[in-house]
Amino acid sequence: MSEPVRIVLLGPPGAGKGTQAYRLATRYDVPLISTGDIFRRNVEEQSELGLEARQYMEAGELVPDDVVVGMVTAAIDEANGQHTGFILDGFPRTIRQAELLEEHTVEGGFPITAALAFMVSDELAVKRVAGRRTCAICQRPYNVELSPPREEAVCDRCGGRLIQREDDREETVRHRLDVYHAQTQPLLEFYEERRILHELDADAAVDEVTNCAVATIERVTAGAPGAR
Ligand code: AP5
Q1: Catalytic site residue from 165, 169, 174, 219
Q2: Is residue 100 within 8 Å of residue 71, measured between CB atoms?
Q3: pTM for the full model?
Q4: Which of 67, 82, 106, 129 to pair with 122, CA 20 to 30 A apart?
Q5: Which residues line ligand 1 (CB under 6 A)?
């Protein structure tokens, strides 16, 4: 590979960003920075950040940009100290976040190499999120119908307890989808204009989506002609 894996994952709730982020970060051995996971850990620890984020998360709203951006740029800088890449799951989510991310990474000499957009219908997204269970320890996602753990309610990876997220109630999920369409979907055009957007069919099975994401990353990082 000639280009480092510095990738942004976009898509509505339930698109499978978290599922694919974990697989891709493992495959390419780069740090995974998931804003949702960072916030959930802070909520659990009842830190100042967690107390602030909680009210927005439970309502299905976005945490304000000024709270998120500093947190993510610090995590990117830390990742860059030890690795040549990173995967961002759930960030950026607004045009302002994308602009600040661009400023930080271009100035630092480590620009984003690709934005992968996981495309899925709202109805399938709601179905997936309603069945989602997440490991209380390592945050790995499962689905009671679509991708159950080997042992009921127990994480295959670390043996942690599987729990349902507070914001996965159907009415909150539908609101999160509205927020996605209003505030995050415009990022597709933002990255299209920069010619680094790659849309993937996320209705497909998990392995199929991973294969498409890997094929895209290999093309991009190899700098192959017609990489888009
Ligand atoms: P966050 O945790 O990022 O939630 P989200 O973006 O709403 O995404 P989800 O985690 O719901 O879905 P996903 O796409 O990761 O799907 P998953 O892989 O889990 O953010 C939560 C909250 O934090 C936000 O609402 C906001 O308040 C705050 N926040 C976070 N980032 C922020 C930011 N940058 N700015 C401001 N606020 C921010 O899959 C879902 C289910 O489907 C699972 O059960 C999985 O097993 C299953 N599944 C996945 N793929 C497939 C497949 N291909 N086939 C079948 N099943 C599948």
Answers
A1: 165
A2: no
A3: 0.91
A4: 67
A5: 11, 13-19, 35-36, 39, 56-57, 60-63, 68, 90-91, 93, 97, 128-129, 131-132, 141-143, 146-147, 167, 176, 205-206, 209
